[in-house]
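Thread: zinc ion complex, take 2
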Amino acid sequence: MKAWTRTLGLIALLLLPLTALAEAQIQSVRLWRAPDNTRLVLDLSAAVKYEVLTLDKPLRVVIDMKDAQLATQLDGLSLGGTPIRALRSGRPSSDILRLVIDLSAEVKPSSFSLPPNAPYGHRLVIDLFDQLPQTQVAPNAPPPTNSSPTVSLPSGQRDIVIAIDAGHGGEDPGALGAKGQHEKHVTLAIARELQRQINQRKGFRGELTRSGDYFIPLVKRPLIARQKGADLFVSIHADAAERKSAFGASVYALSKGGASSETARWLAKNENRSDLIGGVDRLSLNDKDPMLAGVLLDLSMNAKLASSLNVGDKVLSSMGKVTALHKRSVETAGFIVLKSPDMPSILVETGFISNQNEAQKLNTAQHQRTLASAIAKGIFEFFQKNPPPGSWLAFTRDGGQSVATAAREHRVQAGESLSQIARRYQVSTAALRQHNALKSDLIKVGQILKIPAL
Ligand SMILES: [Zn+2]
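Output below.
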């Protein structure tokens, strides 16, 4: 009997530390608010088995984690502007840690776990997607009868739309500067300034893919640009190199094959890590988004590539007048964010944040303004020579004569959708469909569409 107790005691002693090791600790909780969702990130000491449930009365989402322990406070998060009222924890049973998210509005949760990826360890990501208000029209509902465009520009005089993509954001800080500067803040500041300058120019409009500090997967960025009817996609970055003395700006375009240099290859590899760092639910991306599948399809992009190199060249030489250049010509590599068949796309490295001198400059409003105006100048120059049909710039270049009539036809290009073309000419999709006697929204490359008058 005595021996038995002793044995049991020994087993218990041996088991205790093992159990303690098997427990995953929640070391911190972070929160990011995006325009259409709220992301909660749990930093864990090890992977956990978990389950996410939505409950009502009161409305809440609970996350049950097996063999987990809370090793942080839940009350330090700023919940303003989110549908989260409060965060709390409990233990429905001894081996389950329950995280309760009290809600003020309905959300659709989506969750996934991520393996360690510098600068992060194990993570559990919970995205709470806002639900559309009841009054909003479902995507495939018939268009309202009086769907006149909101912008009252004459037909054939639309704005040229520049999508400005501030690199990184939220979970993904991007490169880190010598004094702790985050690339994601520098890129957003320059992107905002670039938008301001573009909007000041008649015939142009700047649209941001990201307008705050939140994460957007790389593959979704060109999608947002496409939804805004962009003619050009410009991704803004400020990167790091292992060699701390490296400095100067560079401009990149997509290459379908190998990279044009070792730096280009290294950089593309680094930039493409964004989705691993920021966290992307691969399954939901691949399955549920037909538009995304379209972007990932490697369509014939040669024409877009030539335009990308052309606009990249103009931006680079314009930047060369205000800042040092890292490379004298546009480089190419396999950047995921540039893989859009729709529009010419470039990635601008505004400088090296890993270089102490350059990092300091990149953080000043004055240098950000100077860089933005150089980028804008290159973009204006490109479109001055290549104004898209139907744009105000094309209209004025051709003397404002008969262009409106010439622009009444549109030849469908690879990757274009009917709704995108409708947006470009500022007519409704319904009007475009009717004007061309289309039975569905399916269009073919090379097909000529007649554009209705407003
Ligand atoms: Zn970057």
